[in-house]
């Protein structure tokens, strides 16, 4: 035993997401597990042309070390873009990150202390739990309904020292549940947060992926000084470039910037310039609607298949955007316990238990509807339905 | 005051490196400050062709989410490459990172605890101090000479609980001093580390940049189970792609991988594939010697200029590789205090004080010889010499 590991290392456990991504690499598996955008939406030609232009026009700058804040024109683009969500932001509040996962890591580093409470939705994004956990916060699970966290749960957050550091909220087509927070709920949540003195970390990777109408204004637009906002290019362009951004109140920006520099000096300048080159002239105005149309058709295909094949007693709501259905199985079934049989049958999903900070609901599971084509969605859900019917009849046989 | 920041945020201070990079962006400054590789060495055409090939041949894979460990063929390439440094490594010990700065952040996360000692050279790489500091280690400065840390300083490291977590060592053309550790010293340092039970984190960004003869075998080759190795593509290809790697003993790899996933899910798959496409068929065998030749000529130009223009009493050694001269000024001069006048005079350097964990030597400064051309190096050093001559005569006038 040469190495003496840090106390926080003991809290870090093998990731279910990562293990599942491995399963889905097996050929022949119909995976509805990973949160992978459809590769059909990647703008390959536009990216190829942009790589070429950047390396022709500014190779010395694109390939050199660069500023930790990010590429200035991209920061300006982001500041202008979030104005469409009601946010009034200056470019110097924008920090370009290596995916919004890195934004979560930086937030953890700057705001979490061992034993200080951090509030999360029930359930919440697994990657956020993983990002915050090394900094040893005390998670508080906010009681939540079909619109997200309840304002009264926020009002009841611990405010004695050390105080609740922040609430981590995903108002738009949340991962994993797909739920969206309505305008009235947003106002109530912000008001409760303001009264309780608990700031908001708002994560919005899916906001552009609405199907029939855009979501209400960002929480950050309602309480700018008390909100920190995370955005991403992963779901509207490509995750393989690892580009996201943080928008921080001026009070927090300098520390986040220092944490960013210590973490990786800066996000690849080449990637920032290529993405800026693609999007600078309104590319997304045409591109995002094409993603919405594709995902909406997939959502419809999965909704129809679930209706057709899942046994009675299963519960779900049809998501109004994003990438996921959230299914609750009938009593007696355990999604984690069934996963090996599912993989055996040639399908994969994510057991919902992974998304809870406390008291996991073993009957839940997450299905992505954007990775497979409608035909394969139908085939996958049919297999899932067969598996659940069998499991249910077994459970009934063994019931007392 | 809505936001309550983490205890560790108070330890993070504005970075001198970043502030200086800003100064060097001013037009007309002859900067010998930044550790920027020469942009003349960036293989623009090879990268352009590789971007095109990757986006033609594997766009869906290159633009999708990918495994946290890194792109398998690149990990295999790294494992084969470090065999030339005497290291016997399996590909599954290789973790691709977003620059080797991220490797330092992951090491800090996994190995540092508040108050647990971490040993560093005197002086050491500023970016490592920044990466480890948020995790609140107790830095121990190892007494060092022209070859690096003294074996007896390692033997004397605290080994009572919590024990020294690791020594952070840069044996090849160290940043900031440019010094290299000889073969005998390496053996002694490893032997002392083994006896003291203090593992080694070996950082080797500059090892390929030798001028007359390659450096001795890596420390990690002498004590594989007690060493963690960091490598980088920043100095031999391009820093703008942010690609580095960690090589870890099997005991540590799983935790580093979990920390990596929490930090940014994975390093951009596109960047990994492009770099692999460039280097897979021996590209570096021709490319690196051309960097060496360029940097050696620059080293010679700076050595000559220093000899010609610096006042008596300045001390330096001509580096045998890497990117930096380390200068010690005559008594009475303070490199930090002189920096504003230097910038006024149109030049920039890094005051050496930034590179010490304790008791900074205010008379030291670091000069990069790879960013400017030989003509501009001469011009910059001449200006530096004039400034130092003036400062010296002022110091003498005011001497008691």
UniProtKB/TrEMBL annotation, chains A, B:
Keywords: Aminotransferase, Pyridoxal phosphate, Transferase. GO terms for biological process: alpha-amino acid metabolic process. InterPro entries: Aminotransferase_I/II_large, Class-I_PLP-dep_aminotransf, PyrdxlP-dep_Trfase, PyrdxlP-dep_Trfase_major, PyrdxlP-dep_Trfase_small. Gene3D superfamilies: Aspartate Aminotransferase, domain 1, Type I PLP-dependent aspartate aminotransferase-like (Major domain). CDD domains: AAT_like. GO terms for molecular function: pyridoxal phosphate binding; transaminase activity. Belongs to the class-I pyridoxal-phosphate-dependent aminotransferase family. Homodimer. This is 2-aminoadipate aminotransferase. It comes from Roseateles puraquae.
